[in-house]
Design goal:
Layout: E1 7-10, H1 17-26, E2 30-34, H2 48-62, E3 63-64, E4 69-73, E5 79-83, E6 92-93, E7 96-101, E8 104-107, H3 110-120, H4 138-147, H5 155-160, E9 164-165, E10 169-170, H6 172-177, E11 186-191, E12 198-204, H7 209-224, E13 225-230, E14 233-238, H8 242-255, E15 264-268, E16 272-278, H9 287-291, H10 301-309, H11 319-326, E17 335-338, E18 342-348, H12 358-365, E19 373-374, H13 375-379, H14 386-398, E20 402-405, E21 412-415
Parallel strand pairs: 1-2, 11-15
Antiparallel strand pairs: 2-5, 3-6, 4-5, 6-7, 7-8, 9-10, 11-12, 13-14, 15-16, 16-18, 17-18, 19-21, 20-21
């Protein structure tokens, strides 16, 4: 066992552990093991009973409000302090709130503290009164008529959608859906052969998120859809499944942190699209739960409900699963990168499985559609020698997956 974001070792009992109690209470809980040194070696405590009393007194005297915790004395003279995520955040030690940063405990910044205060009151940022109250909703009105066939749009409609109440007026969710607003939007860049070549740059912001969503889909169609003519018929083809891109953009808009002054970034390449959303995962859900499609914690519940009513998303929490399903027959799969402050979804160009072997798949992943690669570069990224790699490439050429150019030492390979 070693220290992690939710596990900390303390060889002795000093006040430093109280910062970690604050951190565990403010976020996802955790355990502190007393009588174990930083390397995980058991040292034990001289008087376990007295140590339990000391720990309890320090917590009760120093952390406000009272955290939810239990103490367990072990046979090896160690103590396990289990701290649960609390319902009355923020939990303060010496008037400061703390969080875990990997295996370290650090003080939260002003933005994070404000989030904890709202969470402790069971209030989301989208529920706060919008600074601008002179709002119009022509885009939302049109979408409701088009998708839900609502004939009459008025103040009662906005109340039903939880966008307005008589006490506070319009909330931030209403601001996001309003025709004009002051929120950050979506920044799109389409690159050419490399990141130095920008074919298109577009920014959609200060308008309804519904309009941003539609305009982003339009840019996607320009670059990742085309038509082929078969006899008298025209057939629409997709390089990347539009349904997957729609899910990714809706996911970014619904789950991003709107109190961060940063745009959603959509980076378009010939072989993939990267969607980067500010905010990381909401508190109360793990990366594994998110990737498994078990997203039950909605950062923006009101906005998510509007997207659901309009048919932009299906059942809450199934977006990641749907994206994966749309790539079931693809050779390359979507990738999901989770960090503390961002979520990145990578959608590769959909390529059908060419009955490649496992060894061929390894090489396939290291080749490019736009860059010729010599055998030496390919060998450096796969667990095969030059001879076996050459044989595998010959097999892939026969299957139509790879194209070869040049001869002798100038021989290079590229995805067909």
């Amino acid at each position: 066992m070693q220290e992690t974001r939710t596990i900390e070792f303390k060889e002795t009992i000093t006040n430093t552990f109280l910062k970690t109690v604050s951190a565990f209470s403010n976020y996802n809980g955790g355990k502190i093991f007393f009588g174990i040194d930083d390397s995980g070696k058991v040292k034990g405590l001289a008087d376990v009973k007295q140590a339990c009393l000391d720990i309890e007194n320090k917590i009760n005297d120093s952390i406000s409000p009272q955290p939810d915790y239990t103490l367990e004395a072990q046979k090896d003279h160690t103590i396990i302090l289990s701290v649960k995520s609390g319902a009355y955040k923020p939990y303060l030690y010496k008037s400061k709130a703390y969080k875990r940063n990997d295996t370290a405990t650090i003080e939260v910044d002003a933005l994070e503290l404000s989030r904890l205060i709202l969470e402790g009151k069971n209030i989301r940022f989208e529920e706060l009164p919008c600074k601008e109250q002179n709002l119009s909703f022509e885009v939302l009105n049109h979408k409701l008529e088009e998708c839900v066939h609502i004939e009459r749009f008025n103040q009662d409609t906005l109340r039903t959608l939880n966008l307005y109440n008589d006490d506070n007026g319009y909330n931030n969710a209403a601001g996001l859906l309003a025709d004009k607003n002051q929120f950050p939007g979506i920044d799109i860049m389409k690159f050419g052969e490399n990141i130095s070549i920008i074919q298109k740059r577009a920014t959609f912001e200060n308008v309804s998120v519904l309009e941003e969503y539609d305009k982003t889909i339009d840019v996607f169609r320009d670059y990742y859809q085309y038509e082929i003519i078969e006899g008298t018929d025209r057939k629409k083809m997709e390089k990347i499944p539009e349904a997957a891109f729609r899910e990714a953009i809706a996911n970014a808009l619904i789950h991003r942190a709107w109190d961060v002054e940063a745009r959603i970034r959509v980076l378009m390449f010939d072989d993939r699209i990267e969607i980067v959303s500010p905010g990381g995962l909401p508190s109360g859900i793990t990366e594994d739960e998110y990737l498994a499609g078990k997203l039950s914690v909605l950062r923006n519940r009101i906005l998510a409900n509007v997207f659901y009513r309009l048919g932009f998303v299906e059942i809450f929490g199934t977006g990641i699963t749907r994206i994966k399903q749309l790539y079931e027959t693809g050779l390359k799969k979507p990738d999901f990168e989770i960090s503390e402050n961002t979520i990145k979804i990578v959608l590769p160009v959909l390529e059908k499985d060419l009955n490649l072997t496992d060894d061929e798949r390894l090489i396939y992943k290291n080749l490019s559609k736009t860059m010729l690669k010599p055998i030496s570069e390919i060998v450096s990224h796969v667990p095969f020698g030059k001879s076996k790699t050459t044989d595998i490439l010959k097999s892939m050429i026969k299957k139509g997956a790879v194209k070869v150019e040049g001869r002798g030492r100038g021989t290079k390979y590229i995805l067909k």
